[in-house]
Amino acid sequence: MSASMTTGVVPGPRKDPKVAAALGRRRKRADLTLRVFCIAATVLGIVLLASILASLTWRGFAAMNLSVFTRMTAPPGSEGGLLNPIIGSLIQALLGTAIGTPIGMLVGTYLAEYARGSWLGNVVRFISDVLLSAPSILIGLFIYQLLVLPFGGFSGWAGVAALAVIVIPIVVRTTEDMLQLLPNTLREAVVGLGSPKWKMIVLVCWRAAISGIITGVLLAVARVAGETAPLLFTSLGNNAWSINLTQPMASLPVTIYAFAGSPYEDWIALAWAGALIITLGVLGLNIAARSLLRTRH
Amino acid sequence: MQQAITATAAVPATSRRRSSSLGDVIFEHVCRAAGIFVLVLLGAIIVELFRAGLPAFRAFGLGFITSTEWDPVQEVFGAGVSIYGTIVTAVLAIILGVPLAFGIAFYLTEIAPVWLRRPVGTAIELLAAVPSIIYGMWGFFLIAPLMAQYVQPPIIDTVGELPWIGGLFQGPPFGTGIFTAALILAVMILPFIAATMRDVFEQVPPVYKESAYGLGATTWEVMRGVVLPYTRISVVGGIMLGLGRALGETMAVTFVIGNANRISTSLFGSGNTIASLVALEFGESAAGSLKLASLLALGFILFVISFIVLAISRYMLRPRLKG
After folding, report:
1. Do A145 and B52 touch (CB under 8 A)?
2. How confident is the model at residue B311 (pLDDT cuts 50, 70, 90)?
3. What integer pLDDT is reported at residue B18 of this predicted model?
4. Residue A20's Cα: distance from chain center in Å?
5. Whether B19 contacts A129, CB under 8 Å
6. How confident is the model over B247-283, as pLDDT tens digits?
7. CA dist B94 to A288, B104, B245, B306, B309, Å?
8. Which residues contact A122 (CB under 8 A, 6 or more apart)?
9. In degrees, to the nearest 5, what angle opens at C-alpha B139 toward C-alphas B134 and B140?
């Protein structure tokens, strides 16, 4: 590179203008190739997202009508809906988040406020981050082994527990990140007023970081609402109306999985309707979480 | 513990009043207990999966990992086919996805006009939020027919005729199969890798890049000579993160991989992965059966593989991101 830029002043062999021009052209070409490739890659990414959304909209809206929201799942050919899976998904996702969030917040608080630099803290952070990306199907198998086999059957509670395990590391990550963003002067000010540390954390730090933590919780709800694999082995699914958490419970993703793989036209149509509902919900939550974070920071 | 308290730097002083110091002790212990709970959770997952898979390990020994037989009628089970499928689809997904992810990350940090960075970045991140079952339906109803009609036949006719690599692209164009599964996986891990790469690219001190630009370097030269060397370790960590995700992905793969219990020499052939096999066969295995134990043993193997990959990834991402 330096050869192309040296002039007579700089020691070294004199440059040949033709060679220099050719080199310049080659460098420009390489740069242009890279730029075109990067733009193409980004366009492809957006086209893929658009294609997913378009196919969902096209096939989902075609199958969408009021009975999707008002009727239970039914055998093929008898005009069923998706009411029980929708309710089941809502119950399990919300309960799972409600159980996982406090645990995750405490762990995140421990990492940010108590364990900075300590050996235990580093291990907990590391393991929590690994759990964040661990295959969700294995969490389903684990809960099956822990709660389904010993208690004699699939249940809504088992599904809730599996989702809670998935929620914890998500909330840990956002809580720790948000608490670490707070300036230390804030903590010093509170302690300087004579407040004990736990009051500083609960009344000041948590409150200051609340919008970030809520963002994490919303993202966690969005993540578990779309989880299928862990529910296959825990809450299983239920074709009848049931909000009893000790019984198998229907959920939207598992129902979509069962219906989309079936040979019946009306079930496949319902699966598309369900897919549209779940994607709109999940993407809506994501956008809401993002805009919440943006308005506060 | 003393060390931990002083290390926080925020609270050098302990409270004098007894009641509040009691509150402090309780709160700290509750927080620490929650932290330890996470460790226990991971330990319990490993132990439970191993314990549940033990009958299979006992019955087949270490041969379980390499055996390619899966015969529920004879009660002979081996993990070979699904381990092969898991690794091939994940590695193929990385090969397909990483260049694209790099392109997107580089576009977002260096090329795109500033006003475009946020919306495009958000769109790519939303791609990561789409549930995997949706990818499965999309792949099964849209991509697989496209592959069968327009992509696979020409490849089979041209590349499939070549010596050496031709064998990888032969067979009937079903549309589903290992290659399609890897393609869907590539799309799914694309946003994760791209987001990690973008974040680490943004951490390169602007002064370094500016000095290279000042010497007359082109964008590509700045990328190759400054940004990539500076972020090398984190970039590999991001790729490993994508690999870890691809290894354990279940629903999308189950829809499109074709679900066959044999190793196909052609990438267009059907196969299965650990996760897809477990999801598919679980419903048909009775509690306490050897088949169920084999599936749980598969789960244990998958856990070990993805734990190693994710641990390496976190190790590589950690120091740089903190520095």
Report:
1. yes
2. very high
3. 54
4. 51
5. no
6. 999 999 999 998 888 888 888 888 999 999 999 998 8
7. 31, 15, 10, 15, 13
8. A115
9. 100
How far apart are alpha carbons A169 and A131 in whole angstroms?
6
- Residues B7-20: pLDDT tens digits? 444 444 444 455 56
Given a cut of 60, whether residue A29 has pLDDT beyond it is: yes
Inter-chain CB proximity B35 and A146 less than 8 Å: no
- Is the sign of the CA dihedral B161, B164, B167, B168 positive or negative? negative
Residue B276 contacts A, CB cutoff 8 Å = no
The residue among B233, B8, B21, B32 whose CA lies nearest residue A121 is B32
Contact B134, B157 (CB under 8 A): no
Closest residue in chain B to residue A257, using alpha carbons only: B133
CA distance A234 to A149: 10
Question: Under a CB-based contact definition with an 8 Å cutoff, are residues B188 and B132 in contact?
Answer: yes
pLDDT at A244: 86
* In the predicted structure, residue B169 carries a pLDDT above the cut 90: no
**Chosen from B1, B5, B6, B8 to mutate, greatest number of chain A CBs within 10 A:** B8
Using CA atoms, how far residue B228 sits from A113, A225, A257, B105, B222, in Å, is 34, 37, 41, 12, 9
* Cα–Cα dist B272/B278, whole Å: 10
Alpha-carbon distance values, B201 to A123, A209, A259, B122 (Å): 27, 27, 43, 17
A47 touches chain B (CB under 8 A): no
Residue B110 has, within 13 A of its CA and on its CB side, a CA count of: 30
Contacts of B233 (CB under 8 A, 6+ apart): B316, B319, B320
Token pair of B70, please?
């899966």
For residue B211, count other CB atoms closer than 10 A to its CB. 13
Output the pLDDT for position B16: 47
Q: State residue B303's pLDDT score.
A: 95
- DSSP for B161-223, please give it: GSTTGGGGG-S---S-SHHHHHHHHHHHHHHHHHHHHHHHHTTS-HHHHHHHHHTT--HHHHI
Residue B70, beta-bridge partner list: B77
Dihedrals phi, psi of A288, to nearest 5 degrees: -60, -45
* ipTM score: 0.89
